[in-house]
Amino acid sequence: MLFKVTGRIYDAENGIGISGLVVEAFDKDLLKSDKLGQTKTDRDGKFEITYTEANFKSALEKFEGNPDLYIVVKTTDLAQVLYSSEKNIRNEASNNENFDVAIPKATLIAVQEKSLQENKQLFKILMGIAWLDGVLAPGEKEYLSKVATQKGLTEDPEIKGLLSDSQPVQPQQCFDWLQTYLGKNPSPQKFEALDEVLENLITSDDEIDEREKELLAAFADKNTRQTVLQQRLASIFLDPDFLAKVTSDTPDSPETAQKNLKKGYAYARVPQAVLSKITAAQCDLKVKEELANRFLTLNYAPVQKEITQDNLEVIGKLPEDLSGMFFRIGPNPRFSPLGLYHWFDGDGMIHGVHINNSKASYRNRYVRTEGFKIEEKEGKPIWPGLLNLPRFDEPYGIMMKNVANTALAWHHGRLLALWEGGEPHEVRVPDLETVGAYTFNNQLTFPFCAHPKIDPQTGEMMFFGYQPLTKPYIQYGIVSPEGRIVKTMPIDIPNPISTHDFAITEKYTIFMDMPLSLQPMRVMQGKIPLVFERNKPSRFGIIPRHGGEIKWFTVPTCMVYHVVNAYEEGGEVILVAYRMDWTQLFIPEQENPLDFASTDALLEKIKPELTKLYRWRFNLSTGQVKEEMLDDEVAEFPRINDNFVGRKMRYVYSGIGALYMERPLFDGVKKYDLEAETAQSVYFGRGRFGGECVFAPRPNGKAEDDGWVLTYVYDAVQQRSELLVLDAQNITAEPVARVMIPQRIPFGFHCEWVSSEKIANAQR
Q: What is the CA radius of gyration of the chain?
């Protein structure tokens, strides 16, 4: 059936029809009105809109009768509403409806003046968008001059200045103009209106001649102009500086925060109206292939089976007083990944060896997060990894899947699997079955970091979470020994960052403000979204543990992923950590100088990823900071005796970098004696590579290093894995024991040792 809406719009004082006005017809629905059509009034003010049932009946509305009709009359530029009948709905409208609308002259005059000001405001926004790439091309300038003439803006002094060549429009100026138009925490309707009026502003009914087509290039036709506009608006909408201007300063409610944790950290607080404007992007196939070759082959490839096996073969003898469970967690994708795959993306799998009475057993289990279980049920991958734009359509309420693959922490009798983009997951010991997401009895309202710090004296656990796009960029929390979050607070930093670790001392907490940022709209340009901004300095912030004034110390630009430990000495706070000049996370791309091809210049080419042991001394009284290198050899993944976290320690155990390999690998363990300023190294042998090592203290041991160093080793020649047990006090001696693992353990991330005593005393 064909439906028709007709009518006339005229001047209320003299009855003369008003031409060129925009008339829109809608069907009022509970959630969102269906737009039935749009037209313009003719020279007599008359209009006609036709539509069919398909315009207002969807599959969900198949039992709906005729539309509940209303119309809206707007100015030619769509910027102002002159009339709306939404408060006088014509329920069950007939197939012929007529509207007779008189517009008072005073309304027309006021609207004309307001339209002129709004056109000026919108034109400035359009100018700012044109300048986003830092250049106003001749074609763009010519086109914008044409738009200004059409809108009667050429005599405005401000517009004249913008159209001159004297000064480019800076992004911040454009953000300010947009924020003025949209307001704080704008509604989806406001974003829709912005789209509509900007589209109208750049749409000209005039023909474009051949010369203009050549100059304008991408702006040569209306459809392409709209696409370019959308892409540039999207790059603004996901800019943290812009988001800071339009997102609400009010903290999320606990209910909203819980939903955001499930959604995924990076985009959770970005307004849905913004996300709805972002289109999908194609990944660079060469980069995709290189990343897959780097992180999905050899011993980075996932294992397919979850197994349990007792009475493992042991070469040597396991000490009788070494009793507990050794774990390593890492990425193990269940399905072939979507888009670009990075090592950080795979589903978390825990590999555990249980040691008791000089015998060992092994088991490996996936961390069954909600996203993992959904994909398992669907039999396919649903969510891409961090180098891609997320699922803005939020399947199952999730934009980014919590992969729970990065680190482990034992606190309050629980083993927690951690991923810094969301909530922890509790894993049962010793069977490694996933209990479920752990939110501290729904107290957790922001992402939980991968490296919480547990004070061995007080039992407190300190943690933080970061939001790489929206404020607050960093939040800090404290968990009591009984497992309750007793305090949270925002940490004020000027710009969003991606940060992985932090440190504590007996009295203080130390945060790192490193210039590694997430810039998601680079994905739209075929680039990697993580960027290290080498023109910005690095900072360390020191705050009293339970709150107070934070003191910032600026150091030369660098990146720190992992800290060793921190402690107090006199009036200084001492931090020991691994430092690099800059980072690209081993990600290849055209504009990145990293190239892992085998050449004589290999060491120079991977220099950004070279981590070396450093110490910083922060004087809290003078504000001075001293930075010094402790070792020139490349190493990473440091661990200490955890009984010394936050206190002065003597010994550090780190993985030695295998620089001759094309991937991040360790071919030995290095023990540092910071008091004697010496070090000892043990190498695993040809074709043998390890990972993070953990110190397991001897029960009732007297010395800081009285115990064992444990790490998994993969033998690429034999193609098998083993658990290596070294005497920490004689690390260069032959291994105390080698426990042969019944299947390959892929290279992973962080490890944990939990003694049998802790397991037995665990509170449930």
A: 31
2-11 and 96-103 as β-strands: parallel, antiparallel, unpaired? Answer: parallel
User: Does 451 belong to an annotated binding site?
Assistant: yes
Q: How confident is the model at residue 256 (pLDDT cuts 50, 70, 90)?
A: confident
Residue 606 CA, chain-centre distance (Å), reads: 25
Q: Is 750 annotated as a binding residue?
A: yes
Give the whole-angstrom CA distance, residue 17 versus residue 103. 10
What tens digit of pLDDT does each residue of 99-152 get? 999 999 888 888 878 777 878 888 888 888 888 777 777 677 777 888 888 778
In the numeric block, the tokens 């005039």 are attached to 206
Percent of the chain with pLDDT over 70: 90
pLDDT at 238: 80
| Pairing mode, strands 359-366 and 308-309 | antiparallel
Angle made by CA atoms 313, 316, 322, in degrees to the nearest 5: 90
* Among 517, 538, 537, residue whose Cα is nearest residue 529: 517
Q: Is 562 annotated as a binding residue?
A: yes
**Residue 475 and residue 455: Cα distance in Å, rounded?**
19
DSSP 500-545: ---EE-SSEEEEEE-SEEE-GGGGGGTS-SEEE-TTS-EEEEEEET
Burial class of residue 582 in the structure, from the number of CB atoms within 10 Å of its CB (0-12 exposed, 13-18 middle, 19+ buried) = middle
This prediction has a pTM of 0.83
According to the annotation, is 500 in a ligand binding site? yes
* Residue 214 confidence (pLDDT): 46
Residue with the bigger pLDDT between 664 and 728: it is 728
- Residue 564 and residue 505 in contact, taking contact as beta carbons nearer than 8 Å: no
